[in-house]
Amino acid sequence: MNQRILKFTSWAILLSMFISHADSYDPLDPFGNVTIKWDVISWTADGYVALVTMFNFQMYRHFMSPGWTMTWGWAKKEVIWSMVGAQTTEQGDCSKFKGNVPHCCKRVPTVVDLLPGVPYNQQIANCCKGGVVASWGQDPGSAVSAFQVSVGLSGTTNKTVKLPTNFTLLGPGPGYTCGPAKVVPSTVYLTPDRRRKTQALMTWNVTCTYSQLLVSRHPSCCVSLSSFYNETITPCPKCSCGCHNKKDCIKPDSNKLKMRGINTPKKDNTPLLQCTHHMCPIRVHWHVKVNYKDYWRVKIAITNFNYRMNFTQWTLVAQHPNLNNVTQVFSFDYKPIVPYQSINDTAMFYGMKFYNDLLMEAGESGNVQTEILLKKDKDVFTFKQGWAFPRKIYFNGDECMLPPPDAYPILPNAAHQNFTPFSRFAAFLVLIVVTVSHFL
User: What is the pTM of this model?
Assistant: First the structure.
């Protein structure tokens, strides 16, 4: 009986591990993660000084304001004597210390990045950005955040130091799951003249992965579709982002919009949405605009329906088979994403710096748009069966809900897959001429 229970327990553990991994796995960014690296750079009388560096290796998911928050649990009775480039949100009970009081005595410290503009003696490289970290695909140089921490009441050698446990990462909300700290080969550094190598005394890594399901069981964005060859506009599915209470939204023509402070963010980051049938803070509209002989053109518009949120350094990821033949992108920056070297069907779009990299809150300025010119591959190109519409759309790393395929705009029965607006006009003229000649 005990063997059966043991076997069942083993299978349950394996199944839970598989489900957890599947939830955090992103097929468009299979190697995306956040790696937190601790480098012990010197020993002290009762502990060590470590350089903590966070690398955001996610291709299109970044940390927006108010930025990241990191916590961990000490393995012994460690304290933080001082920090450079970051701070803990609470000092904790340091009453047993006399004279020199630690920066933090909590068993589980909560660390945040410093804001820009702090004095230089409180800064180190890659710190003090208010916790805002770019995605690796958008800006690798800004996808790093770092701080220095002096730890006391700890071991003073590689064999006596105990690694911190139970790491958590918020960015700025939930969604990340962090694994245990693991000792890795010591980091090697180059001196400024690049003629000498030094290395950390000890290094350990923590890897964190993101799962959209940990944030919400509903998506945070949706997609609507339209085309030049069909007057039907396929809207976002109803309640795409969940059916909220009427108190959670405001009608576009409501007098409440004139109230002072309507656009002021709340401490708990609760959204204030415009009342729509989809109830999503973000809608992405994909419009098949023009069909040329050798090219076709798509227009993409992103609309913000949240009155309390500006989206900084936003990213849009689209998956479509013809994105391997992008000829020109207007008013957005563009970068192909090739997670699998033999397949090039995914692209990341983001705003141009100081032009449209800020998506404003709901209102007249709460949208950004672009047009994409794509070259046809005549062996596969078609407008039939919804081929011209995207397979997946992501906004800021979260997958958006698409309409069901049977609701897509379809070709008219007599339409040819390569007709253009000009050819339709020409056919109309021919019909008039034939009709008139028949009566003459």
Answer: 0.84
